[in-house]
Amino acid sequence: MSSSASLQRQAKQSGDKAILSDVRNHIGHLILNRPAGLNALDLDMVRHLQWQLDAWANDDDIYAVVLRGAGDKAFCAGGDIRALYDSYRAGQGLHLRFFEEEYALDQTIHDYRKPILALMDGLVLGGGMGLVQSADLRVVTERSSLGMPEVAIGYFPDVGASYFLSRLPGELGIYLGVTGNRIGAADALYCGLADWHMPSQALPRLDHMLDHLKWKITPLKDLQGVMARLGSQCLPEPPLQALRPAIDHFFSLPDVPSILEQLQQVSVADSREWALDTAAAMHNRSPLAMAVTLELLRRGRHLSLPECFAMELQLDRQWFEQGDLIEGVRALIIDKDKRPRWKHSKAAGVSQEDVQRFFTRQES
After folding, report:
1. Residue 43 belongs to a domain with what CATH number?
2. Known catalytic residue at 127
3. C-alpha dihedral over 337, 343, 345, 348, to 10 degrees?
4. Catalytic annotation on 79?
């Protein structure tokens, strides 16, 4: 049977296939196979993943699923935002269909009756987070870098982030969503965005163990037994643990201008340098996106996952026209001048009315 090395050869030989699938020892393996594009998702990939998961859900010979990305740089760096930009500019509806089907795929993973093990090696951003956060076993390595960086391009954290970020301890989810900052393996475990850590050099051994696993108890417990032999569930000195008092103080404030003001003027514990760096980074984000993200995550704390997806879709249907995404993509991806002209020049210029209108249900 093939192992990790042959999986990589298979990926190289199938460059025209953006999703690869394989079944070994009752495990369905799915590989996002766009390594040159950091395995960014497009609509065809979403549809292929949905189709394969649906087929395996009804196949009694499949006990579990493993989800990974090709290459060693990224599991998935998000959605193919350039394609969505082009769709909007051309007056097409691809961008709206993409979000609807992407969220449906994420819900499928959440509801899946068989355990899914997600290997989060490398970048896991945006849409990649949507794929993995409902998996049963979320595995990070020393190369993992997780985040929801949408506010940097004038968008908001979606793919269920209003559900999974809002449920992190204290104000960690608000901090990650409003700043768009990334975290490594230790912080992912500390926050609850990952379950296991293992060194990337052990990934071939994981494949070997999965290929020779003797199924005994339940598929989930059997997989947990494999991970217990290879990995750990915590790492020493996660940076966010030391920053937690400051994060909980600043990001519980009522609005983005208040957060920025106190980050720049108030000292909490030994976090002064971090606070100033955080404020500086936020000054480069879309003021509207940060304000809407703050409201989105606070609302999400009280909603179910389907309700969170519905809320995010409601924002999507308005955001291309009324938000900052198109300008952000232009400045950072298309023209690359890195000088976006946001709809609001400062956080203090975003009113509560500006924010709340996105959450007012539109009559069809």
Report:
1. 3.90.226.10
2. yes
3. -150
4. yes
Catalytic-role residue among 42, 150, 171, 312 = 150
pLDDT digits (tens, 9 = 90+) for 299-327: 999 999 999 999 999 999 999 999 999 99
What is the count of structural domains for the chain? 2
In the set 79, 126, 180, 300, the catalytic residue is 79
Q: 69, 126, 127, 128: which one is catalytic?
A: 127
Shared domain check, 312 and 339: yes
What phi and psi, each to the nearest 5 degrees, are found at residue 36?
A: -65, -25
- How far apart, in whole angstroms, are the C-alpha atoms of residue 165 and residue 105? 18
pLDDT, one tens digit per residue, over 124-161 is 999 999 999 999 999 999 999 999 999 999 999 999 99
Name the token pair of 275: 């606070």
Does this model's pTM top 0.90? yes
**Selected catalytic residue, list 80, 106, 121, 158:** 158
Establish whether 353 is a catalytic residue.
no
Rounded to an integer, the average pLDDT of 187-205 is 98
Cα three-residue angle 29-128-38, rounded to 5 degrees: 85
Residue 48 identity: H
Domain that holds residue 264: 239-352
